[in-house]
Amino acid sequence: MNWYAKYLSIFEKPFSSVPRETVEEIRDKLNWMKSDEPLASVVVIAHNEETRLLSCLWSLSDMVCRYPVEIIGVNNNSSDKTEEVFKAVGITPYFEEKKSCGYARQRGLYNAKGKYYICIDSDTMYPPAYLETMIEQLEKPGIVGVSAFWSFIPDANHSKWGLKLYEFARDLYIRAIYIRRPERGVRGMVFAYVAEYGRKVGYRVELIRGEDGSMALGLKRYGEIRLITSRKARAVTASNTLDADGSLFNSFKVRVARAVRNFKFLFTKQTEPPKDEESNLIKKG
Length: 285
Prior knowledge:
Blueprint lengths: L19 H14 L6 E7 L3 H12 L7 E7 L6 H7 L5 E2 L5 H11 L4 E6 L2 E2 L4 H9 L4 E6 L1 E3 L7 H18 L13 E4 H7 L9 H9 L4 E5 L6 E3 L10 H14 L24
Parallel strand pairs: 1-2, 1-4, 2-3, 6-9, 7-10
Antiparallel strand pairs: 4-8, 5-10, 6-8
Family: Belongs to the glycosyltransferase 2 family. WaaE/KdtX subfamily.
Keywords: Transferase
Protein name: Glycosyltransferase
C-alpha cells in the first residue's frame, strides 16, 4: 500500500464531507508539532484548495521530524472554504490579496521565523520523513537550497505505469540539468532554502510560473542548490498539471521537444535571469 493511501480518502472531497474525527486528529497532531523557536518554517500556500488542502495538512501532521518546526498557512485570496480548512486544524493563515505563487510565498517568507523556509503546495502530499530529510541536507556546510523529486497520483486519465515511465524520463533529465543549471530543475512544491538568503533574493511576484526557479537562481550566489534523490523526500501531487497538453503521451512529447530545444542547458551555466515571456507575466489592473 502506498504511504499516501489514507490521505486519498479525503483528497478532492468537499470539506463538509470530511469526518470530524479526522479533522480533530490532524489538529491535535499539528498542535503538538508547533514550536516557538522553530529551526524551519513550513509554509503552506493555498488558492481555492478546499478539496485538497486537508490531505496535504494530514500528511504534514504525520511527519516524523527531530527538528523543531512551525507550520504557516497563506490564503492567497481564496473564494472557497480554504480559510475555514486552515482554521479548523488550528492554523490561522496569513491573507495575501494579490494572486500568484510569488506573492503567496513572499508573504510566508516575510512571516517565517525559522532559519530554513520549506515550500509546501496545498495540492501535494508529503512522506513521513520529508521535513527531516530536507532539513538534514540544509544543515550541511555550503548548502543554501535543496529540492526533491515528485510523483503524480494516477487517475482515470493517467495510468500508474504510464506515469512511472514519464517520471523516470523526467527524473533523468532533471539529474542531468542539475549539474549546470539546478534552478531549471527546481519545483516550488519540493523546494527549501536558507531564509536569510531568500529574503535577500526575494520572489518574482509578477510571474505566473517560475518564481521558484528565479529564487533558486538568486540563491546560487550564496552556495550550492542540492538535489535530493531519496524516496524519503519524494512527494505526490495531483496529475491535473499534465492536462494542459492533452494526453500523457502528448505531455511527454511536449517536454521532450522542450528538452531538445534547451539541450545547451546541460553544458552551460546561467547567471542572469532569462528574458520574460509576455504570456508569463501577471497583467496589472
